[in-house]
Specification:
Blueprint: E1 8-12, H1 15-28, E2 33-38, H2 45-55, E3 70-74, E4 80-85, E5 105-111, E6 125-132, E7 135-142, H3 145-161
Parallel strand pairs: 2-5, 2-6, 4-5
Antiparallel strand pairs: 1-7, 3-4, 6-7
């Protein structure tokens, strides 16, 4: 059994494995959650967010929020998923102009969360992605009780899928 402080370490050999992780996260998602996505440029943060949103039933284009900073997607189960990419902000104070009051958001997917300082909701789950040869590595870290349960459940789901 994984201890509370130990991450769930995963190897994502290809794009299909990243999609499988997104699907596992969607199937095991708590009703309300904040996910901080970390990793260098090209590590797969947007790809994972897109896979998770697609698995939650989002139809149509799922755009990267690189230039818009936030994209909002209605979820069939109610509420919205908010996908933020904070790479281009210079100061956490800039978030004030995005109108992120959070009432409609039941799922936050935040890329480059360190740039948001204390202006962001606390993470339930931290996902650290890195390039690993031809694929990616992922570490799931529960940052709350719900996030820890989510990381464990998603890890089990993914192991069953692969």
């Amino acid at each position: 059994m994984t201890a509370a402080h130990e991450p769930i370490a995963l190897t994502l050999r290809d794009a299909d494995a990243t999609d499988a992780l997104g699907a596992a996260l969607a199937r095991t998602r708590p009703a309300q959650a904040v996910v901080h996505l970390s990793g260098d440029l090209g590590a797969g943060k947007s790809t994972l967010a897109r896979a998770l949103l697609r698995a939650l039933g989002v139809q149509g284009a799922i755009r990267s929020p690189t230039y818009t900073l936030v994209e909002r997607y209605p979820l069939s189960a109610g509420g919205e998923a908010w996908h933020l990419d904070l790479y281009r902000i210079g100061d956490a104070g800039e978030l004030e102009f995005l109108g992120l009051d959070g009432d409609e958001a039941v799922l936050w997917l935040i890329e480059w969360p360190d740039r948001g300082g204390g202006a962001l909701p606390a993470a339930d789950l931290r996902v650290e992605l890195a390039v690993d040869g031809e694929g990616r590595s992922a570490r799931l870290l529960g940052a709350s009780a719900a996030g820890l349960a989510w990381a464990r459940a998603a890890g089990r789901e993914l192991a069953a899928d692969l």
